[in-house]
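Bumping with the actual sequence this time:
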Amino acid sequence: MEQQKLFLKNCPLCNKSNFSNFYKYHHIIDIAYSYCNSCAIVFQNPTCSKQEWNNSYKYNYRKIYDNSTTPTESSLLLQKLRAEFYSYIIKFQQSRLQVSFGC
């Protein structure tokens, strides 16, 4: 099923409309990122609805990346390490935070 693209007009973090196209590539689908010139977050734009994200992770993500319908030991370990890494950055970063969460 084709996902409907939602073009964000405001930054999802600071709600300002001052952002630029940042990076675009193709990975299973076309993916583009924007950079907020106000708060420095990088976010996927266009994106899709919350329901489409939920369905994508529920039905497709593990099949594509783990070749499985349930979490593998290695994917659980990777997610744990990512969470610890981002937690460390958020806790100790003194200057502008530049973290991209998402696909």
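The tokens above came from a reply further down the thread. The helical segments are 50-65, 73-92.
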